[in-house]
Amino acid sequence: MRKRLLAGLALVGALSLAMTGCGSGSSGGAATASGSSGGKVITVGFAQTGSESGWRAANTQSMKDAFSAANGFKLIFNAADNKQEAQIAAVRSFINQGVDAIVIAPITVDGWDDVLKEAKAAKIPVILEDRTINVSDPSLYAAWIGDDFKKEGQTAGEWAKKTGTSPTNMVVLEGTTGSAPALDRATGFAAGAAGAPITKLASQTGNFTRADGKTVMEGFLQKYGNKIQMLFAQNDDMGLGALDAISAAGMVPGKDIKIVTIDATHDGLQALADGKFNYVVECNPLLGAQVADLVKKVVAGQPVPKSQVASDQSFTQEQAKAALPDRKY
């Protein structure tokens, strides 16, 4: 009898120890994996356009910060070097890996139907970040978060209209051909500058890069010389590249050629503060926290707005000087 009692007590003690060990291990494992008090780690594939500009670098960092292990995510990142076929291949790779959600900053607006249908068939929600797309069925993506490119272009155009009150010759450095910001900023600028005596001498893509902005501006200057009185660069980096070409041609940027750009990166605002740019419209790249919050809701099956627009500003020279000390990108 005494032996059976001792055996029973030993068994109870062993079971108690085992239960305590499992409970402790489970709780600790969840906290370590998610970076919080528990919950499933959300695996996200992010298909970025590339690294073409200072704006894009800030956008990428914002996304990486938001989709961190500490916030409960595992991020699979791909930058497509502004090649849409590479970006679509990255999205297909995410689908094959069985991620929980896919985030895309689309390089161009068209060509997305097939791969998004594949994601939908795999029951993987897709969130668009920064840029928009044209699709046959809007249900192929869950939501979009980004900036109002048309409004940015319109704000730049309104400034040009106020500045170009007398006949003014303008050239345009466009963004990536077929991309949402290039298309929308052109449309917005035309609306904002409507009625102004501004003649567009030429408009050509500079692919949102400094190098191409410089090369294209050199071509403009070789063809039109001092006939150019205004430059609309659809992002800061192309405008910054154009500065070198303008100076090399013996002209003074900001004086001989008035310059309006879009993005409001630190380098762009510095050029504005130095008087080399004349006006800069903001395009906020720090979208990571908003996108991460949206992904969590979509994965949890919660309803979300189909589109969300970030808040943008615009800057004069004095406003740029005031903003520079605290500028995050």
Oligomer: single chain
| Integer tally of domains | 2
Specify the helix fraction band. Answer: 40-55%
Q: What is the CATH class of the largest domain?
A: Alpha Beta
Low-pLDDT sequence parts: 1-38
**What is the C-alpha radius of gyration, as a whole number of Å?**
26 Å
Quote the CATH topology of the largest domain: Rossmann fold
Cα end-to-end separation:
78 Å
For the report, how would you describe the main beta sheet? 6 strands, parallel
Count of distinct strands: 12
What is the 3D form? elongated
Describe this structure in words.
With 329 residues, the protein is α/β, with parallel strands linked by helices. The chain folds into two domains: 42-146 and 286-310, Response regulator (Rossmann fold); 149-283, 3-Layer(aba) Sandwich (Rossmann fold), CATH 3.40.50.2300. Helices cover 46% and strands 19% of the residues. It has eleven helices and twelve strands. The chain has helices at 2-34, 54-66, 84-97, 113-121, 149-163, 180-192, 210-224, 236-248, 266-273, 288-299, 317-323, and strands at 42-48, 73-79, 101-104, 126-130, 143-146, 168-174, 198-205, 230-233, 258-263, 279-282, 307-309, 314-315. The strands form two sheets. It has a six-stranded parallel sheet with strand order 2-1-3-4-5-11, with helices on both faces. It has a six-stranded mixed sheet with strand order 7-6-8-9-10-12, with helices on both faces. The longest helix has 33 residues, at 2-34. The radius of gyration is 26 Å and the shape is elongated. It starts with a helix and ends in a 6-residue tail after the last helix. Residues 1-38 have low confidence and may be disordered.
